[in-house]
Sequence to fold (447 residues):
Amino acid sequence: MNTLFLALAAQLLKHPVIMRISFIALGTALLLTQQSTVEAQAPGGTLKIWYKPNVPLGIAKGIFPGRVAWGHNPLIASWDGKSGFWWEDTHNNQSGTDKLLAQTLFSLTNTRNEKISWDALFRFFNKTKRNVDAGYQAGQKVTIKINNNNTNGHENTNEINGNPQLVLSLLKSLVNEAGVPQENITLAEPSRFITDNIYDKCHAVFPNVHYVDHTGGDGREQATFVKNAIPYSIDNGKVATGLATCVVEADYIISLALMKGHVSQGVTLSAKNFFGCTDIDADWRKNAHSSGFSQNRDGTHKYLVFTDFLGHKDLGAKTMLFLIDGIYGNKFVNGVPAFKWKLAPFNNGWPGSLFASQDGVAIDAVVLDFIIAEWPDAPDMMYSDYSNIESALADNPPSGAVYDPERDGTRLSSLGASEHWNNARDKQYSRNLKTGNGIELIYRKVK
Fold:
C-alpha cells in the first residue's frame, strides 16, 4: 500500500502547473483569480501553488463568522514511534487532552466556561437552523461521528484512527458540562468499527451511551440505515444512498474528523467524514466512488460529492460543531502515524492540536493549509481545495452544478467560507488581517 502511495506522490510531483485565469461567479459579481507562483515550502518537497492567498469566498458561518479555533498542547502526545501502540495511555495525557478540548471551545465561543460554551453552541444552532432561542432541550439526541476508517473489526490496530483520549474528553464534556444525558448520545462509526481501545475506555465511564458501528456485537449496536436518504444532486452511479438511522434521527451532529491525507482528493477532513454515514460496505474495495470524489487533474471545475455531504439536511446541515483531531495526524489515509511535523510551532514533534469551528468549509480550508505546507509532496494535493470552493459557492459554483442533495427542489446556498492563509509562518486569514470577511484563525497554546 505504501508503495502505491509513493508512486502516486511521484506522479503528482511531475504534474505540470497550468497558469490560467479563471472567473468565479459570486452572485451577480465576478471575482478574478489568478494562479500564484508562490510555493509551499517544506522539507518534504515543493509544490507550485495554484491559488492566491487571502481571497475569501462564500459566506462565513458561526457565532463569530468564519472562526476556526486552534488549540495546541505539545505535551499531550509522546509516542516514540516504536514502543507499543501510539494511542496507549502511556503515550497520551488524558487530563491534557481534556484541557485541549475545553480551551479550544473557549476560543471558539469566546467564553471561559465549558457549560457556557456548550450553551452558546446549542443556542446559536437552534436560532440559526430552527428559529428557536433555546439551548439543549431534554430528550434531544446528539450523534458523534468519528473517523475509524482504518479498521477491519473490533480488534485494536496501530493505524491512524480516532484518538481514544479525545473521544473520552468529548463525552465527558457533553455529559458533565453540556448536560446531555448518556442515553441521548450516540458514538457512531456506521460504515466501520469502534475498536476496543475506544469502546473499553469510553464504556467504562459512560455505559449508557449508544456505541454504533457496522456489525455491532461486543457491546456495540449494529448500524441500521434509511434507504435512499441521500439521492445526491446528480446521478452518482452506484454510490451508496442510504444514511445511518442514528444520523437521520439525531437532533444534532458533532463531526470528529482526522487531519490526514487521502489519495485521489488530497485530504480527508470534515466533509469526507460524512461518507462514513452512508450504507457502504465495511470492505472499502467493494464500494463505488463516482468521479465526484476527486478533483480534475487539469484544474477544471466539476461537481464534487463533498458539497452534497456538507449541505445535506441530515449531515452537514445538522452539524452543530465540527472538530478535527490533529493530535497526531498522518500524511496518508492509512498506516501508522509515522511523520512528525517540521512546521512551526510543532518543530519536529507531534502536532498535538485540535481544530474547532461552526463553519464546516472554513475548518477544512484551514487544516488543508496545514497539510499542504507540511506535506506538499503528498498524493493529489493539486487543486485539493476545489471541494471547498464548490461548497463556499454552492449556490453558484464554478462547476455550474446545481447542488440539491435531497432533490427536493431547494438549491443549496453558501455552506461557509473558503480561503487560504497568507503564508505558513504567520497563518493569517482575511479576518485576522482585517482585509475581508472570510476566515479567522484563533490560536491558543493550552497550559
User: Anything to note?
Assistant: Residues 1-44 have pLDDT under 50 and may be disordered. Residues 2-445 form one domain. The CA atoms of residues 190 and 213 lie 4 Å apart. The first strand starts at residue 21 and ends at 26.
